[in-house]
From TrEMBL:
It comes from Neocallimastix californiae. Gene3D superfamilies: Trypsin-like serine proteases. The lineage of its organism: Eukaryota, Fungi, Fungi incertae sedis, Chytridiomycota, Chytridiomycota incertae sedis. This is Serine protease. InterPro entries: Peptidase_S1_PA, Peptidase_S1_PA_chymotrypsin.
Length: 353
């Protein structure tokens, strides 16, 4: 590594990566970022972390939170006029910063990268495991749904750390580590999904109040519940997750998850469904993108399944429990009533969010 590169890394640790402190308790990592939303010419500046670090309940209950960066403490206010986004499924929270706060501090705002990293591409993480700043490097092992699987060393407190490529641009946000009998694997949310979620609610703020982005999905009316059932959506024990059965393959169901910004779907075997959110986050979810053709979304999904299955078999061929939790083959394609249901949800956009 060149001296220039080392200087850049040191500068990032001092001016871009923060320890998140809630009620005097260290809770995770955050980082400053510049989003090209609404445009490159008029970007949003803010701080990003995980939803399980700062969630909608905390935002609703408190006026601010504390961060520590380069041994200095700062208060970040939840300003009602600023844009705030949070989502439990993709596990992301973004808080727009006040202009005065930005002007009075010499921080670095990282920039996102929307190009998908290659497998085994080197990535870097600045983080606060156990409330101590550290640096680690590793590799992207696979891309599954909206999750990157990576092998960078992390620990408690690393949640919310940015995954950086060799150009020091953010490709994802680390959220959780999973321990198995054959080693550990880490998950991060890819930045393309993050951008879509934030951009969708920002662009729709002229229709929906800006507070929608920082709140969980609303409660549905009895009429809406009955309408969902009419279209084939049945409730599950997990709030906001629904299922639609297969006719030809009765052992499988198509799961749907309702967020504040979009619907997601994935196929699971009935015997392999867990109703705990941490497990559900690891599923191979497909975003119902209102800006993307339905056919293209399916082609992207099906083309990745074979490679991911091989990755699981090679890395965790002895760990059946891990494979059962994460593996989600689309060997059985969608049935006609599934396609009609997805099309209806696509056309409804944010109507039921």
């Amino acid at each position: 590594m060149t001296i220039k590169a080392k200087d850049k890394l040191i500068e990032i640790t001092k001016k871009a990566i923060s320890l998140v402190i809630l009620e005097d308790k260290t809770c995770g990592t955050g980082f400053f970022i510049k989003l090209p939303i609404p445009t490159n010419e008029k970007p949003m500046y803010g701080i990003m972390t995980n939803n399980h670090v700062i969630n909608s309940e905390y935002i609703k209950s408190y006026a601010s939170f504390k961060i520590k960066i380069n041994n200095e403490s700062y208060i970040i206010d939840f300003n009602e006029s600023n844009f705030i986004f949070t989502s439990e499924l993709i596990d992301i929270t973004f808080i727009q910063l006040n202009v005065d706060f930005i002007k009075h501090h010499d921080f670095i705002f990282l920039e996102p990268c929307y190009d998908e990293p290659n497998k085994n591409e080197m990535i870097y993480i600045f983080q606060y495991p156990k409330a101590k700043l550290s640096f680690a490097s590793g590799y992207i092992e696979d891309h599954f749904g909206f999750n990157y699987f990576h092998n960078t060393s992390t620990n408690r407190g690393s949640s919310g750390s940015p995954l950086l490529n060799k150009f020091m641009k953010v490709v994802g946000v680390h959220k959780i580590g999973i321990s198995t009998d054959n080693g550990d694997i880490n998950l991060a949310t890819d930045f393309t999904t993050i951008d879509y979620a934030i951009r969708t609610l920002y662009n729709k703020s002229y229709i929906n109040e800006i507070i929608k982005a920082k709140e969980p999905t609303r409660s549905l009316t009895k009429h809406e519940d009955s309408l969902f059932k009419k279209y084939g959506l049945e409730k599950t024990p997990l709030l906001n997750m629904y299922y639609c059965p297969y006719i030809e393959y009765p052992s499988s169901v198509l799961l749907f998850y309702r967020t504040n910004h979009a619907w997601y779907f994935t196929r699971r075997e009935k015997s392999n469904i867990c109703y705990h959110l941490d497990n559900v986050k690891t599923y191979n979810w497909t975003l119902i993108n209102t800006d993307e053709s339905f056919t293209k979304a399916l082609e992207n999904k099906f083309s990745k399944d074979e490679s991911f299955t091989k990755t699981l078999e090679n890395k965790f061929n002895k760990d059946e429990s891990f494979t059962k939790t994460l593996e989600n083959k689309y060997s059985k394609k969608l049935e006609h009533h599934h396609e009609l249901l997805i099309t209806w949800l696509k056309l409804s956009e944010l109507m039921y969010m």
